[in-house]
Amino acid sequence: MSVEGIDSILSKNVLKGKKVLNVEVTNLVEPGENFGGELLKLNITSEDEETKSQDVLNAVAKKIPVLEFAQEMFNVQKTFKSELIFYEKLVPAFQEFQKENNLKDIINCFALCYGGRLNVNGSDIVDRDALILMENLNSSGYNNIDRYIGYNLEEAHVLLKDLAALHAIPLAIKLKKPDFFQIEIRPFLNNEFIQKDNDSFGDPNVLLQDILCESDKCGPLFSRVLKVWNEFKKPQKYQVREPFATFNHGDLWINNGMMKYENGKPISNKFVDFQCYDYKSPAIDLLNFLLTSVNTDVLKEEFDGLLKFYHSEFVDNLKKMGCDIEPFNWYNFQEEINEDAQRVFAWATFFVICVVFGPKNVQEYESDFSFDNRRHRDAIRKSITLDAKEKLFFIVQYYARKNWL
Fold this sequence. Notes:
- The protein is of the alpha+beta class and 405 residues long.
- The protein has one domain.
- It contains twelve helices and ten strands.
- The mean pLDDT is 90.
- Residues 132-320 form the CHK kinase-like domain.
- This is CHK kinase-like domain-containing protein.
C-alpha cells in the first residue's frame, strides 16, 4: 500500500521548505465503514532543508472507491471534483464573509485540507491516483460516534450548532452579496446524487413490510408507508424553494460527523465527506441527521426540542450577519420541514436498516446486490438488530403523528 507523488502537494503549503523522507500508509477505517471512497492514514516524515530537523505530519488521504461499480454509483468524476472545490473555494469564501461582517467565531467544522489532485498526468479525468490530503482528525482528538448507539443530547447540540452555521453563512451571502453568490458559490451547488440505474438494487418494500409487520402499531401503517416510499424513492429533480435554499451537505449521517471530548463532555464537531452537497432546504440535512444518527431514546423525548434548538441557532447566525430574520421565523421553518419530510423518509428508512445498523467490519455489499434476490434479502433480515427495528418503528410512528404519511 503506497501513495505516490504527494511531495508536490505538500510542498506548496504545509511542508513548504521541507523534504519528505518517508510516508507510512495504513487503512484509516475498518472495512465497510466508508462507503464513498478509500481512506488511508499517512504518517509523513519530513526534514527541514535548512535546519535538518525532522517532523511527522499525521494526515489522511481520501481516494476514490476501489471497485469500478462503486466509482460509477458514486459518480466520482463529479463528486470527487466537488469535494476539492469545497475545500479550495467554498470554505475560504464562507470564512472571508464572516470576517467581513466582523464575526470572531469563524466556521471551522471541517478538517484542514492540505491540497489534492485529480490524477498525476494533468488531465481533467479523476482516476485511482486522485487524492485529497487532509488533517488526520483522529490525531487531533476527533472520533466517530458508534453508529449502533447514536448521538446523545449533548453531542447532538454540538453538531447542530455547527450545522446551523454551515447553512446560515452561505444563505447570508446569498442575501447580502447576491451577485457574488451567483458567480462564486451557486454554480458549485449542483451535486445531487442520482443513481444511473434506478432499479439496480431492486425493490426493498418486501423487506420493509416484513419488518414493520412485526409491530402492532406499524403494520397497519404499511400501506401509507408504501405510498410515500414509492413516490419519493425514485430519483427526481429537486424543486428549489426560496428563501430557505442554501448549502446542503447532502449525506449527513453519523459516519460523516466526528466529535472531540474534554473531561467526558463533547466540545467540538467536524463534518467530513463533502461529495454530494447541493442547493436545497436546510430541513433535508437536519431531518437526515436526526432520523438516522441520534439515539432513538433521545429522539423519543427530544425530537421537537432538537428542531427548535437548530432553528434558534440558525436564525441567530443570520441575525449576527445582518440579515432580516422574519422570513425565517419558526412558523415558516416548520413549513419547510413539512415540505421535505416525505422526501427524506424513503432514504432514512432504507439507510437505517441497511447502512446505519448494517454489519460492522465487513466489506460493502456485493456488486450484484439486489433486494429481489432472496439470499441477499435474507442476509439483511438475519443481521437486523432490535435497535434497528426500534429506530424504524419510531420513524414510522413519528411520521404518522405528524401526518407526513
